Amino acid sequence: MRLEVRVADYRWIAETAASAASWRQTLPLTLQAVQSEWSGDVMELFGWSPLSLSFEAEPVPFQYPGLLVYDRSMGRMALCFGEGRWQDGFSPIRAVPVARIEAGLDQLEEFGRSLQFVGAQELTISVADPAPSDRTSVADNPAHEGRAIEIGLGDTVACGVLLQRTSPGLSAALGALLPLQGKATNTYASGPLTRFWNEAGGNEGVTTLEDVPTPGSRSDERRLTVDRRRSIAAPGYVYYMPSPPWNGLRIAAQDATVMRSALPGGGRSQLVPVARFVGEWHAFSDVAANLRFTGALPMFIRFSEQPAATII
Description:
single chain; alpha+beta; Cyclophilin; 2 domains; eight-stranded antiparallel barrel; about 15% helix
C-alpha cells in the first residue's frame, strides 16, 4: 500500500513498510507538523490524542531523509527530512519505521526547514493510488543518475547505479577503477555497515577516489562534494569515506547507521554517496547482515551489461 503525505502545497508518495491492515482503520490521519526541539532535521507529527497503531517492525536507531517513524510509548510519529536522529533531551527515541518517501526529498527538506519560521502546519496521511506521473522521479528512473553496476557479495549479486548526477567527480573516479575485486566484512563501532576491502589496497584495503572535475563540470565541483557529505548513512547506498588511512567504500545494506571511531571520545566520519542499489537487493542485505558470523566474503563491483533504464 502507498501513502499520500500532503501539507501546504507539497505532496509526497510514501511506500509503506507496514501491512495495509495496520493502516486501514486509522487513515486518513490529520496531524500537526512541528520542528523537533532535540532531533536536528526531524519534524514531529502531533495528533489531538496519542495514536494507537500496531506495527510489527523493530525500532531503528537512526533515521534518514524521507523515513516516517512511529514511537509506541508516546503514540506519535516523526518524519526525517535531512541529517537528524529522533530523540528527546535524555536519549534517542525507539522509532519504528513505517513508511519511506523516496521522491521529492529536496522539497521535503525545503518544507522541513521552513517549520522553524512558520510554526505548526497541518499534515495529512492517507491511502494513495498514484498515477504514473507520481512516480516519474529520479528515484524510479536509474538511467537519469548514471551507469549501471553490479555488486557481488558471497553468492549474491545486486544491481545499482553510479550517482553521476549528484556526485559527478567521485562517481566518475569510482567508474574509472571498475572492475574492483576484494572482500567484505562488517565494521567496528559503526553498526550495520559493510566495509569493502580492495585487494589492491594494502593492509587496510583502501580505495582512493580523486575528486577531479569531469568534462563540462562546474569549477566548484569539489565544494559541491563537500556539501554532499553525510554523517548518517541511509540504507541502499554505497559511500566513499575520504579519511586516510582507511579511505574507501562503505555500504549501507541494512538499517541507517553512522560511521564512527571505536575509540572513546572518537567522532563520526562523514561519507559521500557515490552509488545506490536499484531493483531487488534483499538477498544482498541478508548476506551483509550475517558477515559478523560468516567472516569475510568475496566482493566485486563492476559495470553491468544491463542498461540502467531496465533496472527497476
